[in-house]
Design brief:
By secondary structure, the protein is α/β, with parallel strands linked by helices. The protein is built from 7 helices and 10 strands. Strands 1-8-2-3-7-4-6-5-9-10 form a 10-stranded mixed sheet, sandwiched between helices.
Length: 206
């Protein structure tokens, strides 16, 4: 069984960092749904993420950031449209698809792009910041199963594959983020979610 800490526990951040740096998986709350995170720079840890979720290998793992300045650590040639969307909706329930840096491990994304988001959850962002500003994080559920809104639902779904659970009560959003791609010069909404396409186009003037 995984260890269990309340997100407000003084040991929550250092314990989560220790687990992630050792290659383990951590369940953590966000503003949308519970996520499960791994060190994106350790291919073995990311593989464990795929295995825990039974996630098809062709589905890239999103990256959660602590701060907009961290975007440059994992992305390159970021379109102006992406910066405008980030300024308008981060932190919040919008994942923005941008070109990835070449040093991103292939297992995180076999595509030329990655999906980035900053969650509106200060304590979870503190974990991400302490891990270098970026983590591979995807929803804490088995692939194609309903998203977990509580730590218990997440832990029940992923079981012993996870080393640590950070319990932040029920996630307030309850719906996975909108996913928007602007890499082709125009907006494409890849997944509908809390941020409407109308709102995105309004920011872009489209």
């Amino acid at each position: 069984m995984p260890d269990w800490l309340a997100i407000h526990d003084p040991q929550a951040v250092p314990e989560a960092v220790a687990v992630i740096e050792a290659g383990g998986l951590v369940i953590l709350p966000t503003d949308t749904v519970y996520g499960v995170g791994a060190d994106l720079w350790r291919p073995g840890a990311v593989q464990a993420l795929y295995d825990a979720k039974r996630r098809p290998p062709e589905r890239a793992i999103p990256i959660l950031l602590a701060d907009p300045a961290d975007m440059g650590k994992v992305a390159r040639d970021v379109p102006d449209e992406a910066y405008r969307l980030a300024e308008a909706f981060w932190p919040g329930p919008l994942t923005i698809v941008v070109p990835k840096r070449p040093e991103i491990p292939e297992i995180v994304s076999s595509l030329p792009t990655i999906g980035l988001r900053i969650p509106d959850h200060p304590l979870t962002r503190a974990v991400i910041h302490a891990c270098g500003g970026a983590l591979a994080v995807t929803s804490a559920n088995l692939s194609d199963e309903p998203a977990a809104l509580t730590a218990r639902e997440a832990a029940d779904a992923l079981g012993d594959a996870v080393v640590l659970v950070l319990d932040g009560a029920t996630c307030p959003g309850g719906t996975p983020s909108t996913v928007a791609d602007v890499t082709g010069g125009e907006l494409r909404v890849l997944r509908r979610g809390p941020v409407s396409e109308t709102s995105l186009r309004r920011v872009l003037g489209a």
